[in-house]
Design goal:
Radius of gyration: 28 Å
Number of strands: 4
CATH architecture of the largest domain: Orthogonal Bundle
Shape: elongated
Strand order of the largest sheet: 3-2-1-4
Number of helices: 10
Structural class: alpha+beta
Number of domains: 4
Strand content: 5-15%
Low-confidence stretches: none
Largest sheet: 4 strands, antiparallel
Mean pLDDT: 91
Order of helices and strands: EEEHEHHHHHHHHH
């Protein structure tokens, strides 16, 4: 058995303490855990208990980091998991933290998809929105359910609004009507609009057909 010989508050972070075992620095942890675990100087402690306390501390740090992340910007579950992995947290602490955040509504992929679509559908078509949501780890079922609420007429109006701005820019340096329409066509396709929507908008703007 080893003995805790000193517990001292860190100078730079008053919420964390350094624990010394047998007069040597052993580990640091959240000060809250000191009280929860009943750690005291001159107390005997074994390696198994140190490891268990370390796991609890890692979870608390991971949960705090997760909360700071979602406070700044709303994240999908996959985005949050990826960020925590990059910060070096272990997978068990990450999964426990995510479950905690899900339980209290800090992350919700259904809500994330709806908010993302609401934010992007004025400047992007369904295809691009769907592709981006897949990259963010949103399930196909959630995507299809959320994206089905996009009004087709409203989407076409949004496509027209961004296309007319692009047309005015291109027209300043391109006189050839065919080349102009092709550039506009490619631009709208890159924004994720369907072929039918793009054809309609390009024809309307370039007056190739009466709509």
């Amino acid at each position: 058995m080893n003995t805790i010989t000193k517990i001292e508050v860190q100078k730079r972070n008053k919420n964390r303490v350094n624990v010394y075992v047998d007069h040597e620095y052993a580990f640091s942890l959240d000060s809250e855990l000191v009280y929860k675990e009943g750690l005291k100087t001159n107390e005997s402690i074994n390696i198994e208990r140190i490891e268990e306390i370390a796991k609890k501390d890692n979870y608390l740090k991971c949960k705090s980091a997760a909360l700071r992340i979602v406070e700044k910007t709303y994240k999908s579950e996959k985005e949050l998991k990826d960020k925590l992995l990059l910060k070096g947290y272990d997978i068990n602490s990450i999964e426990k933290s995510i479950e905690f955040l899900k339980e209290y509504g800090f992350i919700n992929d259904n809500n994330f998809a709806k908010l993302y679509i609401k934010d992007k559908n004025r400047t992007q078509g369904k295809s691009k929105i769907k592709y981006d949501l897949i990259k963010k780890g949103i399930s196909e079922d959630i995507i299809e359910s959320s994206i089905s609420n996009i009004d087709e007429e409203a989407e076409r109006d949004n496509a027209y609004n961004i296309a007319i701005k692009k047309y005015n820019v291109i027209a300043k340096r391109e006189d050839d009507k065919y080349k102009l329409s092709q550039k506009l066509f490619r631009f709208l396709l890159s924004k994720g609009y369907s072929y039918d929507t793009v054809s309609y908008v390009v024809r309307k703007i370039t007056n190739q057909e009466d709509i």
